[in-house]
Design goal:
About 35% of the residues lie in helices and about 20% in strands. By secondary structure, the protein is an alpha+beta fold. GO terms for molecular function: monooxygenase activity; nucleotide binding.
């Protein structure tokens, strides 16, 4: 029988995407005789700044065998319990998107309808009071979630803030230990098969030729293989997501760590604040149609809590995605497959999601178009789902009258998002597919936080009488507050 297995994998580009891919593939293919080569150049920078993640990062860290304590020390990581949104409903407004769920353990989406009903019955307790994760974040406390579904601690969720450059360096050590070979060099040309257009090899600027059976494009926004070589078209989403620039700068570490990311609405975009062990990452994502670069730079500096430790760095991008992330024998992972601003900290997730889908659809040497179509379908849908969630933040904003925000409030939105909004406004239901990344608690946090109010609730909650419902919710608030207070302080 002819051996049709892939024997040579070439990863084009390092950074977070490249070394995450290298670490995962070296682990998954250990002992199978597959040569994995990563080509990168120290002369070509990466976007990596202080990164905020979402809880799916635990899955990736587990499959590559990371020890949490060592990982956090090596990457200067801190615990992240969610995102605080400041000013999205006007100056002084704030709400919290927590990791974890609202309500008691096991109540799920139905609890949100109990809460909606209670408000109609006069209960004006803040939404945050029903989230153990938010109460812990506000109090600066933390403990690991438990698996016992009867415990309130099972409703907790957490992720990390970490230094993306240190994370890539840490993963590089693991990947090279697993047999990955790194080549320093800049790609001068790409050789393709004349019939299939598949990539056969890369020629570096020193003349070295790197051949492969499968190529992973981790070249970032350049999209050297998937875009420049194979010519896969890019869908521009800037008519919905107008921000196309970001200034980034570090500042000194805070004495008392904040266990959440902060996203503050500004005149032409929003500012991020990400606390790490050794510094705070700051940035301003903005639209160049509404603010020039120098004014945006000044806005970033004015909004920082402390002086910058380095000159602000400008990043330019176009929001959108490649119409195919997998074509022929090239799979795009990370920014080469598309860019979505880090408003909900999805950049790292989309890297690991692409890796997971590649592992589940790992091809033979012929790189079957059937596998590519399936990959493109499921990964493309995930990008669309995240896109809609980000658009919601802009479209549902109230209380801001700057030109960019007025345009966002009036813009036509995708039909898929309009359908979700119609359901929620009509009956309080959050209608999601089983594969969507952000679940009921996340959608409710943003919808509720930005002032969307449903006109009704699921009638099944009527089985709990009005007074009984209000009494149970009051008892739940007290239990959440007590449990949060009993947690140890942040390490």
């Amino acid at each position: 029988m002819t051996d049709k297995r892939i024997r040579r994998i070439v990863i084009m580009g390092g950074g977070t995407a490249g070394w995450m891919t290298a670490a995962a593939l070296s682990r998954a293919l250990a002992g199978q005789g597959v040569a994995i080569t990563l080509v990168e150049s120290d002369a070509i920078g990466t976007i990596g700044v202080g990164e905020a993640t979402i809880p799916t990062i635990h899955w990736f860290n587990q499959i590559i065998g990371l020890d949490e304590r060592q990982f956090m020390a090596e990457t200067q990581a801190t615990v992240k319990l969610g995102i605080e949104f400041v000013g999205w409903n006007g100056e002084g407004s704030r709400y919290f998107h927590p990791f974890g769920t609202f309500g008691p353990p096991g109540d799920g989406a139905m609890f949100l309808h109990r809460l909606i009903r209670a408000r109609a019955d006069g209960d004006m307790a803040p939404t945050e009071a029903y989230s153990l994760t938010v109460q812990a974040a506000r109090a600066g406390r933390f403990t690991l979630p438990v698996n016992d579904r009867r415990s309130l601690l099972s409703t907790l969720g957490y992720a990390y803030h970490f230094d993306a450059g240190l994370y890539a360096r840490y993963l590089r050590v693991l990947a090279e230990r697993g047999g990955v070979r790194r080549i320093e060099g800049v790609v001068a040309s790409v050789q393709q098969d004349g019939e299939s257009a598949s990539v056969r090899s890369l020629t570096l600027d020193d003349g070295q030729v790197v051949a492969g059976d499968l190529f992973i494009d981790c070249s970032g926004l350049r999209a050297l293989l998937i875009g420049q070589t194979l010519g896969v078209a890019f869908d521009d989403w800037s008519h919905w997501l107008p921000c196309d620039r970001a200034w980034a700068a570090p500042s000194a570490a805070e004495s008392d760590r904040t266990p959440y990311t902060r996203a503050t609405a500004a005149e032409a975009g929003w500012r991020w604040r990400i606390p790490l062990q050794h510094r705070v990452g700051n940035g301003y994502v903005f639209s160049s149609r509404f603010q020039d670069e120098e004014a945006a730079r000044a806005s970033l500096l004015a909004g920082m809590d402390g002086a910058p430790l380095a000159e602000p760095r400008l990043i330019r991008f176009i929001p959108g995605m490649r119409r195919e992330a997998w074509r022929a024998n090239v799979v795009a992972i990370g920014l080469s497959s598309g860019f979505l601003e880090p408003l909900e900290s999805t950049s790292i997730h989309l890297i690991q999601s692409g890796i997971a889908k590649l592992l589940s659809l790992f091809p033979a040497r012929d790189c079957s178009p059937l596998l590519a179509r399936q990959f493109n379908r499921v990964f493309g849908q995930e990008m669309l789902d995240v896109r809609d969630f980000l658009i919601l933040h802009y479209h549902a904003t109230t209380g801001r009258d700057e030109p960019m925000w007025r345009e966002r409030q009036k813009m036509a939105i995708p039909d898929t998002l309009a359908e979700k909004l119609a359901h929620f406004r009509s009956s309080g239901r959050i209608v999601l597919s089983s594969d969507e990344l952000f679940r009921d608690a996340s959608w409710f946090a943003v919808l509720d936080g930005q002032g969307e109010r449903p006109g009704d609730h699921n009638p099944l909650v009527e089985v709990v009488g009005r007074d009984n419902n209000l009494h149970q919710l009051a008892a739940l608030r007290a239990e959440i507050a007590k449990t949060a207070t009993a947690m140890p302080p942040l390490p």
